[in-house]
């Protein structure tokens, strides 16, 4: 307004307009001029703080303010703010203007309040004016249909001067504070004004903005522009402490209580009923639904939701508030949806103690309200959940942010809900993140690729959160890591039965969960598929989508249940809830199913998704006895609403899941005629984990009895019974394949005896009898029944540890009967056929049915010791059957034969004929047969203390012959150049190899001697012979040292053994030359150990190995001869034990071939003489003074030992294994 001259010059236009305003008679022109005055002068009036005395302005106000023109309602009031510039002028005319405003307050002219709001600011503090503006007991304000922000600004100006009056007289009345519940009614416009006014006043006080500016009319300026002032409002929760600081603590509680009542009524009237999942809202446009009385209520709803978390309603628990906000994210109104999403995100990001509750609450809403029938809404809600996780991660990653600094304790604001407490031993938020993993696992069951991709994105965000927050050592690993590790193994298990558009698997990109989800392929079934395990084979028969098989495989006990138990404990109630919601759409007995299928035929579309949920449910289910306590404690979000909670879920809340109740619901569906439904039940029941297996069997028991009944019936009933038999067998085959039936704790085995339970024994036996009776029929379904029965028995036995299998079948006759029955279905591998020439087709391919029967034969045969000793007799039928399997060109059949031979050798150690047959086949069998037997012998000998010298003989002979064959190949040979020559160690004998090593690595002499000494006491006598033979070359490296004696000069003698070694080594000289290699410690160790071996085990050795060891020790040219020391020892012994020592010496002399004299006594020294020389046969003429009986015993012992040695080298290892020996042959002989 300064300089005044310029202001007066510019104000000339306003004076001319005022003159024209007084002269014109047209009402519309007067309104237009009044609007022009307001838009021009309000910004100027807002700047007026003190009295001013500007002549042109005073003239302008005096020109418009006259007593007589007040009869014109909209006129001349626009200047009123300026009249405050002159205090006396204002006081003289105040009563006139107030009476005029009150008389025209109820004017229906829509422009009236717009033109008069500025003067209202001055007169609004009067009680009559407030009473007329906000009438008591009215549902609206006066005038109606005016912009609500004008009323808000009026209250804001009043609160600036009189806060208590504004709160108690205006805002309390607008929000119905203090009214009883029965008298409470929604007045949307009044409540909207009151709530917005409270928020603005509190925000101004908290930010200390001072006097509020003149309000904006909200109308468009004459120039076409809109004047808007940017203002930042606080979003931080207003706590009781902060309300006390700004002087609003006495009003705050009442306002929060009022908001709680408003939200509950709004939710009932325009909230739940207008969710897009409501059937009445389907195919409706929001513009058509948000009309009439709903529109102001929706506006009030927007304001209340936008006030969260600034003001948290009192009386509403955390779960209730989060559930309300979550449901509003699928409301018909677009703006309300967006506001609710922002409020949820603010609660999650800004309040760390709300994060678990927000995610649990939104998950509960998602599972309960957004069903799979609303695919678009489901994906939208999942994107919001993914956004919440992402924002949480970004908040934690932001610099300077920490949980401690950002945490706002809001326990005083809300009642404590039933939120899950984080265990102290785990990291922060670990429980809720694992619960999100459980939800993602449920979402991976979806048939829609978009939903599965969102689930993977959630798992990746959860992994990032775990990395940011940190995990304790005992916490479960992120589920996405486990799934990525398992993906290549799972793909490998079924890649042979899948057909994909892509020619080959990706070479550069690793196979992970993302790749499996996006992989487009189909499962194909083949009668010649013998590679796939049982679950892959059954899935290929009934399911074409490989992703379902991936989910099934992930739920194996060693996979997700082992590594992610916490996430799976949440997946169980989540999957149970989703499956129950689909149940009416797939159950043929449900009226909803009949209605759906009769109208649109959409009932079958949900069977696939329901099947996936069924597989997940039984894979992660908990026993029924744990459901009431354990599951309620771990998953409170899936629980019935309490009566006092004030929340109604329209009977959609699923209580704590129960397997028993689920089975009672599902098992009767096994009798339905829908193949798709029964196939789904087979796959679901077949995934049952061991914890709930017995509950499943209890429910299936009536069906098992019904299936095994044998009575005359018509063709249709017989076909139904055959289908039931087949489906039950497939269920038990899947359970046996997963190791559930054979589980020693919760399976079908008796816990004390480890035998198959009576129920299953009866089932197996009755099924066998049934199939024996119908063995002559060739119906297609009977072939399937036989194959699945065979696979079930084979899987059941193979999952039991080998040393426990003997207890499975208490009656050996059942094993025998099963073996014969399976043999009849095995085709070319039956015990009836000896040549392998009767295949099912010309390509010599084996069918799945034959292979299953063969596996079952093998499993039953190896289930403990053989049930029929005749089969392993010298001419037993099992040898021909084993020859048949091992000689098969199919690698899997051959491998199965090797496993059978290994188990037979392991379980029938007392069957000498079996072991001799295996040894014989190593020499006499074909390449396939010999290699299989050798692998079996090597495996068994490596796991048990078997005669390893026989294995070494076979190995040595085989490698020696093969090495010779390779070196002698001619250039034109077919195999020439395909294999390089074997290393030299295969072309020499083991003693020669030991000699070469002793020369090449003499520094290993003492370690090898120490190893032999350590193993000597625990080895079989013949094994000691072999070890001493291999030790001989190393003893030549030893130099004995004795510092207490002078080394006498001697001429080294060369023994026959040393000469032979030097000859065999092609004249190469010894590596160690000269003296100084020995030590006192080494000499002491060698002599002590060798003396101990001689004293304790010397008489047990039949050969000369011990003697050769001593000779080798003294034959080294660097060593001192032992003869002087031995003489000294003998002299010591003769002094005290003369006769005993002489007897030993003379007895040793008599054993030598050149000198075998007859010694006679004489009287002159040396008191004996040699009378004659004879052979060993005359050795009975021994020394006269010796004991004849003792000599005979010694001679017989030596003779027997030499006979054993001769038999060892004369008996051919390739001889017949079926000779009856009068005396059992030692394993090492």
Word description of this protein:
With 1229 residues, this protein is mainly alpha-helical. It is built from 53 helices and four strands. It has a two-stranded antiparallel ribbon with strand order 1-2. The chain has a two-stranded antiparallel sheet with strand order 3-4.
Outline the secondary-structure elements:
Elements: H1 4-10, H2 12-23, H3 27-46, H4 55-64, H5 80-83, H6 87-103, H7 112-123, H8 127-133, H9 148-161, H10 163-174, H11 188-207, H12 240-245, H13 249-271, H14 286-289, H15 294-306, H16 318-328, H17 334-350, H18 355-369, H19 375-397, H20 403-406, H21 430-443, H22 449-469, H23 479-494, E1 498-500, H24 513-518, E2 521-523, H25 534-542, H26 546-554, H27 560-563, H28 565-586, H29 591-599, H30 607-620, H31 627-634, H32 659-666, H33 675-686, H34 693-707, H35 715-737, H36 758-773, H37 780-798, H38 812-825, H39 848-861, H40 877-886, H41 891-907, H42 912-924, H43 927-943, H44 948-967, H45 990-1000, H46 1005-1015, H47 1021-1035, H48 1056-1064, H49 1080-1097, H50 1105-1114, H51 1123-1136, H52 1138-1150, E3 1157-1161, E4 1168-1173, H53 1188-1210
